[in-house]
Design a protein that fits this description.
It contains no helices and 10 strands. By secondary structure, the protein is mainly beta. The strands form 2 sheets. Strands 4-3-2-1-6-5 form a 6-stranded antiparallel β-sheet, with no helix packed on it.
Length: 144
């Protein structure tokens, strides 16, 4: 994937060119969630989209509110002591991407803010769309 410097985040750079997702067949989605006490997991904090060629695209939010799209492998979970832990694993029905496993990405549309860079990414599949956006610093995924 190529960098998109012109619309890049001032802190995190342009990341990966989201247009290169077009034509990829989604075969697996991995997510990370924050777990604290007895509360249900919050998140996902991150998602990793894995295609039929084994390429992995990571989607998450940056500390400045940008939406980061980069090529990277899922990390392992970790313990944050009294603040809970982050678990990482394959998604079930926890994200809108679950409905599109086995489908190819048909189109990609991105939104940018002048001082932040990329803030949203819409992925179109044969059976619908998924919107990924940075919302108040959190990753928000919506089935469209």
């Amino acid at each position: 994937m190529e960098s998109e410097e012109s619309n890049g985040c001032p802190l995190h750079g342009g990341g990966a060119a989201a247009q290169s997702l077009v034509g990829r067949l989604l075969v697996e989605v991995v997510g990370s969630w924050h777990v604290w006490g007895g509360d249900p997991p919050a998140g996902p904090l991150d998602v990793w989209l894995i295609d039929d060629r084994g390429a992995t695209v990571h989607v998450t939010t940056g500390s400045d509110g940008c939406l980061i799209v980069e090529e990277s492998e899922p990390h392992t979970g970790y313990d944050m002591g009294e603040s809970g832990r982050v678990i990482v694993g394959a998604i079930g029905n926890e994200t809108p991407f679950a409905d599109h496993i086995g489908e190819s990405v048909l189109a990609v549309r991105e939104e940018y803010e002048p001082n932040t860079g990329r803030v949203a990414l819409d992925l179109s599949f044969p059976e619908g769309r998924v919107r990924c956006e940075s919302w108040a610093g959190d990753l928000r995924l919506t089935l469209m």
